[in-house]
Amino acid sequence: MKKQKPAEKSKPEISSLKVHLPNRKAADSFAKLLQRPLSSRHKTIRFMGRWSPKMKTVKIKTKVPKSRWRFIEERKKIVRENSKRSSWNTDDFFNRTWVDMPPFENKEVSVYHTITVTFPKLADKIAFAELVKQPISEKTKSIDFPFQKPKEKRNLVWIGRKETSQPRYPIFIISKGRAQYGPLTATALRDIGVPFYLMVEPQEYNKYRVLCDWAKDVLVLPEGNHGKGPGRARNACWDYARDVLKEKRHWCIDHNIRAFYRLHQNERIRVGDGTIFRAAEDFVDRYKNIPIAGFGYKFFHPATETQFPFKVNTRIYSTLLIDNDCPYRWRGRYNEDTILSLDVLKDVKKNPTHEDLNAVNADGSLKNSKRERLATVEFITFLQDKLNTQTQKGGNTAEFYQKEGTAAKSAMLVDIHPDVAKTADMLKRDHHKVQFEVFRGKWLIRTDERKAELKARNWKPLKDKNSYGMKLVDLI
C-alpha cells in the first residue's frame, strides 16, 4: 500500500502595514530603527523581531553594519501615489455644479516615501508596534512615522446659520431589535437637534415608544417578523411622507449611525446641527434628474486623499434622500440599497441592461442622447459614521446574517442585475462587486428655475461664498 502524503499545512496569512514617512529625516530614523539600509526603491520589506517584556526591548536579527542604517534617495521627488480620478472627475465640472454650497477643498497630502512592511508572524507585528511606539490592531491599514498625536478636535463641531440648520424634508429611521441597545442614529440626531420619525414593527412599539420618547413620532408597521427584509418598512415611510405629510422628498436612514461629519480642508469634523441635511436637499432640488442622493461612508473617504464634494452615479447606502415621485421602489429581501440604486441608474423599465442604456448609432452617437437620464449623487463632503455590517446586535444581523451568512445576499443581487454585478470573496466573507463605473458618463440636468436664477446673475456664485454660514464652534 502506498503511504498517504501528509496533509499540507496551511500557510499562515502574512499581514502587512503601510508606513508613511513625511520627510527625509523620518526616513533615516525609520531605517535606524529597523537596523537596516532603506532606499526609495524599497516598496515592500519584511520585518522579523521579538519583543522582550522583561528587558522591554525589541530584538532584531541583523548583520548590517550600523554605518549603513540610513535611507538612500535614488530619485528626486517621492510622493504618495495620487488617488484614482475618473474622467468626469474634473475641477471644471465641480466648479460649475458646486455653486452656492458650503466651501469645499480636500487635496492630496503628499509624503516623502511610503513603504509596506510585512510580518510573517503575529509576534513580529507585536514587536514592530512596540518598536514604533504606536497602537496597531489587525484592522490598522497604515501609520505615519514618527507617530503624530492627532489634534484634539472632539469638542469642535460645524454649526450653520439658524435659518438653514434644519432639514426641509422629514427624516425616517427604520429600526428593529435595537430598542434595548439604543438605535444609534436616533441618539445622533437628537444630539444635534434634528427631528425624526421612527418606523418599527408592532411587537416592539412599546419598547421604542418608551426608550425613544424624544422621537417626533413612532410609526408602526401593520405586520411584524415577516422575514422579508426591511424594504416593506422603507416603502411604508415613503407612503407616509408622500400621502400623509404631502412632501416632495424624504430621508430614509439606517439605525446604526454614530454621528455625521463634514469633510473639508483634510479634516473630518462632526456637525452640531442639521445644516448638511439642508445643504444636500438644496443641491438636489436644483436638478431634475436626481431621484436618490445620500451621504458617503466616513471610513471610505480618508481626509488625506484628493476628494471632490460629491460623486455622480454610484450606490447610495444607509442615509438616502429620495424623491417621492421616483418611478422605482424598494425591492428584494436584502441588498435593497444597491438594487434601488441600480434600478434608477439603469432606468430598468426602459433599459434593462447597461448595454441598452449606452446603445449607440453607427456614427457613435447615443441613440437616446436627448432623453433625460436618471442619476444618483453621493455627497463626500457630508459623511456618515456608520458601524460596519454585522457589528451590532439586532436588525438584519439577527434577522438574516447570523443564520444565513452573506452568500444569499450577494446571489440575490447578481440574479436581479447580472449585467453589472458579480459575486466576490471580500473582507473574509461572501460579498459582491458592482460595476458602477459603466454609469459614470452621465451629467446632471438643472431645473428650469435654477437655470433662470443663474442666468439672472450672469452665472456667478453668490457674493457670500459660505451661503450656509458654517463655522467651527468649541462646545466647551
Describe the structure.
The protein is an alpha/beta fold. It folds into two domains: 122 residues, no CATH class; 310 residues, Spore Coat Polysaccharide Biosynthesis Protein SpsA, Chain A. Strands 10, 11, 12, 13, 14, 15, 16, 17, 18 and 19 form a ten-stranded mixed beta sheet that branches. Strand 4 and strand 5 form a beta hairpin. It is globular and about 75 Å long. The N and C termini lie far apart (80 Å). About 3% of the residues have low confidence.
SSE topology sketch:
Layout: E1 15-21, H1 24-34, E2 38-39, E3 44-46, E4 49-52, E5 57-60, E6 71-72, H2 91-97, E7 113-119, H3 122-132, E8 142-144, E9 156-159, E10 171-174, H4 184-191, E11 197-200, H5 205-211, E12 217-220, H6 231-244, E13 249-253, E14 257-264, E15 267-270, H7 275-285, E16 292-297, E17 310-312, E18 319-323, H8 336-346, H9 354-357, E19 376-386, H10 395-404, H11 407-416, E20 421-426, E21 429-434, H12 448-456, E22 471-474
Parallel strand pairs: 1-8, 2-6, 3-7, 10-11, 10-13, 11-12, 16-19
Antiparallel strand pairs: 1-7, 4-5, 9-22, 13-18, 14-15, 14-19, 16-18, 17-19, 20-21
Précis, in short:
The protein has 476 residues and is of the alpha/beta class. The chain contains twelve helices and 22 strands.
The averaged pLDDT comes out at 85
Proportion of residues in helical segments: 10-25%
| Number of separate structural domains | 2
How many angstroms separate the termini?
80 Å
CATH T-level topology of the largest domain: Spore Coat Polysaccharide Biosynthesis Protein SpsA, Chain A
Residue fraction in strands: 15-25%
Count the DSSP helices. Answer: 12
What structural category arises from helix and sheet content? alpha/beta
